[in-house]
Predict the structure.
Amino acid sequence: MRRELAELSYTELEALDKTNACVILPVGATEAHGPHLPLSTDVIIAGGMARAGADALAERGVLALVAPALAYTSAGYAAGFAGTVSIRPETATELLVDVCRAFFGHGFPLVALANAHLEPGHIASLEAAVTRLAAEGRVVFPDVTRKPWALRLTDEFKSGACHAGQYEGSVVRAERPELFRAEIAAELPENPASLSRAIRQGKTSFEAAGGPRAYFGAPARATAEEGRETVGVLGAILCEAVLAALGR
């Protein structure tokens, strides 16, 4: 059975057999996601991925505890929009290293990162932390921006025009429907500008990348059904990555 780590008492945590266990750490950002989605969108997606992955692992006999999410990281592309909280990439790396070390210190042999924030500087922070921790414990980070994982996600995701669009909006509709501003989303025109292409071209902000309202893709097309399917795929990706690290 999946458990939320923060809901356990310390004595309950001490009593767990951690031989075949892992902590899943949802990782997101607090940043603008258009006028129709909350600042916590990435954290919501990461949480859905973490819970779905934990459920899939439980079915395979692996105890997976979902930790409280990390909600602050490098988010410079959205810095021009109200509510975005961006910290230095090196600060994000140090925070992740310290958190993972704490889990290792409590006897967990593996930490899995359920990441939903796709900004390059943030990804680099995670990779740096994984490298730093390699000699201390196992950290699993399936980077969904890369093959083979990216190929399993939606067409909008693969197009790169997916920040606060159909892909992310669908997951919010599935996980936290009360936070999806449906009337606003229905009036937003599709923005086909590819954020990933703009990043490769050296653009460093949503505005420069062609997202003056902090969204890319098709918000009006978001559905809860697609969101549930996406969360299932993300959970399966996380589960497979953990099982591979465990040699199963």
In short: The chain has a mean pLDDT of 96. The chain has one domain: 3-245.
